[in-house]
Amino acid sequence: MTKVLDVQDLSVTFALHESEVRAVNNLNFSLEAGETLAVVGESGSGKSQAFLSIMGLLAKNGSTSGKAMLGDVNLVGMEKSKLDRIRGKDIAMIFQDPMTSLNPSLKVKTQLAEVLVKHRGFDQRQAEKTAVEMLERVGIPEPAKRANAYPHEMSGGMRQRVMIAMALLCQPKILIADEPTTALDVTVQAQMLDLFKTLTDDFGTSLVIITHDLGVVAGVADRMMVMYGGRAVETGNVDELFYDPRHPYTLGLLHSTPHIAKRAERLDPIQGLPPSLEHLPKGCSFNPRCAFCFDRCLEERPPLAPVEPGSTRQKACFYEGPLKYGKVA
Fold first, then answer.
1. Does any domain span residue 116?
2. Which of 19, 73, 98, 305 is the most exposed place for a label (fewest CB within 10 A)?
3. What is the tally of structural domains in the chain?
4. Which of 58-67, 99-108, 182-191 has the highest mean pLDDT?
């Protein structure tokens, strides 16, 4: 398989008044052509900041180190003028809230056409025609009529489809979707996920889905990267992580998720709260919440390493015994 993105030792730091916060710490991963990668973790785990840094969209007090190789081009530290030519064309991002991502004062067709004029050199008439065709492609009824609407005249699901259409207009190599189903009801969520799968198959686009919801991952993603405290703690293909998790945090996330086949009276949430990135605990960041913790975990930070020699699966955990959920606090 061909790597379309290769991230090496990516770190993201935010400067505060009297200190700094490391939101992402030495993150390493790659994305293959046509692959769907799910990046999973609770709020504050660093998953969104990692990809905002790759896109060059951090807040002003943020800084990035490491490499994010798109082919032979390093996106980290790239000049804004050069990055602008890549964003939208080769790598595109769909944000959590489509209402704040779309300009409320411009018609949908105007916003879509701008992408084609800027990145593909279309004239306005050709761009608007292609925009309407893409709206139809993403399942918007009466696309010509909707193209003349303003964002506030559409439902949340419609606006999300507009954002997907905008992201796919230039047929990017990579599409990043940040919590794409958060504000949608369950029926529309399912439609969005089916749409992602169909469109990425059709265009051959590599997809990254950033989410805290494991239900979104199942049936859509090929691989999964679990993040906690600004680090990757487990990686592997989705079936492996779902049916045989090797990190206690992954196990906790799975048991915090409703399952249609398991009619439990209550869920088993992970006890405690995610750590403050400003004051991470010594040793493993998960140790205050982990029932499998032992003395070594309190002193040493486990590296992300293969679960066994030669394996493509990785975990950042010293515990080698079986993970039985009954033992989790």
1. yes
2. 19
3. 1
4. 58-67
